[in-house]
């Protein structure tokens, strides 16, 4: 698998960042990225995201943080999905989220939502829109050689 690609380009007045080739993510798959964003004070903040590709070929992006206890969704099991892949799932207490809305429909954070990330597919690349990212070498996904679904096991501090 190729390394995730991060780069920026200007599209009209909106800054967009290339995250990865659209085909790098399998249909019904997801991939995580550990990015850094620049906040309002100009400081760098961790910005972990997941990009989900549906079987129908839509892409959705969310901050990789469960609204229940703020852990990464794929904590523990390493997977982002429920067993039948119909929902995103938090590995800690099993909350399930709609893939296309990020809304929790079952679990301790029922009714809360994942934080959406605006994405666009531009010329074959998945791009992040409207977020100012810090660009440096830390954008490579250290878990990039994980299994074919690109789910990864992550243990946040
Ligand atoms: S931390 Fe995600 S369901 Fe509890």
Automatic annotation (TrEMBL):
Protein origin, superkingdom: Bacteria
This protein's UniProt keywords: 2Fe-2S, Iron, Iron-sulfur, Metal-binding
UniProt-listed Pfam families: Rieske
Occurrences of domain Rieske (ranges): 48-128
UniProt xrefs under InterPro entries: Rieske_2Fe-2S, Rieske_2Fe-2S_sf
Transmembrane segments: none
Gene Ontology terms, MF aspect: 2 iron, 2 sulfur cluster binding; metal ion binding
Name the record gives this protein: (2Fe-2S)-binding protein
Annotated organism of origin: Bradyrhizobium forestalis
């Amino acid at each position: 698998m190729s390394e995730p690609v991060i780069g920026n380009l200007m599209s009209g007045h909106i800054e967009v960042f290339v995250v990865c080739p659209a085909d790098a993510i399998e249909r019904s798959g997801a991939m995580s990225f550990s990015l850094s964003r620049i906040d309002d004070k100009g400081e760098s903040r961790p910005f972990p995201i997941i990009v989900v590709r549906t079987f129908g070929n839509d892409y959705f992006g969310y901050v990789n943080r469960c609204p229940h206890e703020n852990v990464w969704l794929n904590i523990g099991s390493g997977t982002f999905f429920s067993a039948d892949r119909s929902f995103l799932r938090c590995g800690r207490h099993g909350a399930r989220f709609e893939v296309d809305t990020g809304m929790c429909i079952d679990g301790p954070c029922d009714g809360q939502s994942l934080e959406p990330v605006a994405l666009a597919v531009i010329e074959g690349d998945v791009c992040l829109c409207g977020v100012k990212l810090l660009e440096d070498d830390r954008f490579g996904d250290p878990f990039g050689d994980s299994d074919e679904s690109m789910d990864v096991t992550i243990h946040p501090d």
